[in-house]
Description:
Chain B: Residues 183-240 form a coiled coil. The complex is a heterodimer of chains A (268) and B (365). Chain A has 268 residues and is an all-alpha fold. Chain A is built from 11 helices and no strands. Chain A has helices spanning 5-8, 12-35, 44-63, 73-94, 97-100, 112-141, 150-177, 180-192, 207-213, 217-230, 240-264. Chain B is 67% helix and 8% strand. In chain B, strands 2-3-1-4 form a 4-stranded antiparallel beta sheet. The longest helix of chain B has 59 residues, at 146-204. The interface between A and B is medium-sized, with 33 and 30 residues.
Amino acid sequence: MTPAAPLARPPLRDSLRVQGRVLVALLLREMLTRYGRHNIGFLWLFVEPMLFTLGVAALWTAAKAYHGSNLPIVAFALTGYSSVLLWRNMPGRCIGALWSNLSLLYHRNIRVLDIYVARIALEFGGASMSFAGLSVLFIVLGWIDPPKNILEVVGGWLLIAWFGAALAITLGALSHESELVDKLWHPASYLIFPLSGSAFLVDALPAAAQKYVLYIPMVHGTEIVREGYFGSRVHAHYDLGYVLPFCLVLTFVALFTTQWVARRVVPE
Amino acid sequence: MSSTFTRPSPLFLALVVVPTVLATLYFALFASDVFVSEARFVVRSPSKAAVTSLGQVLSGSGLSGATEESNAVVEYLESRGALADADRDGLLTRAYTAGSVFLFDRFGGLLPANRERFFDYYLGKVEVEPDTTTQVLHLSVSAFDPVAARAINERLLERSEALVNRLSTRARSDALTVAESDARDAQERARTAAVRLAAYRNRAGIIDPEKEAEARLQGIAKLDDELVSARTQLQQMEAFTPAAPQIPYLRTQIDGLQKEIAQRRSGVAGGRNSLSAAAARYQVLQLDSELAAKQLAATLISLQDAHAEARRKRAYVERIAPPSLPDYPIRPRRLGGILAVLVLGLLAWGILTILLAGVREHREG
Lengths: 268, 365
């Protein structure tokens, strides 16, 4: 940025509006290229995660999986697996996103970050809609009770989303530089899944393990979602004083790597 | 150099400079010293046989190790009941609402005071943490005055002790009451059985029908012997000295003996008032009494077991370290607090700067 630039630059509001248009366009394009216009089209966006969650809920119900509490297993699977989908799909979508969109970077107003943000927004929307849709469906069917504190559920959900987004952008940017990220992410995501608090309550773990499990950031978000959902029936363990700085640092790293990659990227 | 570089941007001012200055002011000048009094104690309770099978480890409960009583103590200390108990004479209220405490730290300083808020505030000041490997409970209480911190800690510890005592007395008395009432029942039954047996003996005028029958049979046998010898004598006399004057005498004797024997026989067996009839009734009573005695012995043993069990079941609070009197305020961590605000501010500023720069790269035309 040259010293003279600030005088010439357009107001922030205008730039934001341009970026908003770019993001919406990218989002629509992403939806079309991914789901096409066949059969139910972009509805797959949330039908896909819904089917996943339903399947897992059914499996866990059939297996009467042990989860360390007397909570209804359907509600447990819903809160747990939806959270997993949220933080796991975002990096999955962002890794390698740049390679397939390199041609778009010819447009001056499409920036590297925009591509990631559009994909993340899409994933977030899909997972959220599936979570909300399934919740409403199960509540109407009488399988689960309505959440005790919706605001808390939303807060926990946003926390997981924030973590997922920061992780996704970091991994996405890094994956542009090294293919290893893609190769390592798949095993890693499967390994973290059982540790992410989706299949257990922290309270049910031995206290010695609780301390270590709480180093994993998504656990906190899942716990908050569960507390919001079940109220005093679960004893949630979370520490915002740990997750929030963690997410802040990760976000910083994410933006920093994106800038770094953006400077090196070569549009095709 | 342009003035843009010498003068920090408003974003930097808002996110880094202002918060850090505020934090410095707060931590350096205003924040009240917090003294932490710590106590360590163990809730001793009957040790159950430690099962360390793989299944238990997997089920997650194997490693937790905490006993019911120490869980109860933890739950109690984090309850409204503990607050109400400890604050009965206003000890906590006085300690946390003192005017000398800085407005932001004081309870009721910023928000209107009520019971619910006070409970939240209390949860922030009292921390009870079970150590799972050693099963020691750490109870730490923060207050703005070392003496108050210790007093509150001591109070909470006393209440926990009272709770554990109550639990263990209850557990013991429950088991004992059952055993005791069983023993009392058995005693009563044994006594009535014995009384009925004695009453029957009195009524029937016999101590033991078996022995009495034996004695009588012996008497009958003796009479039989006499009868036989009298008969033999009579036969001899009738054969050799038919005119002997003893013959009528012997005949009377034999008659008398036969009558006596028949009468005695009927007393032993047959007949309503015979000994054999009495023996049947007697045996029923005796069996009752024996059974009652055996039952009594059994319940007495189980009562003794219950006593032993109760002695073993006694849970109590063992103080390892009594509430300490802090001589130095370990909180707030003034430098650390300022530093944390600075670092977080810098992070937020960095993120926003990059984001805004990214936004600015979009332009019309």
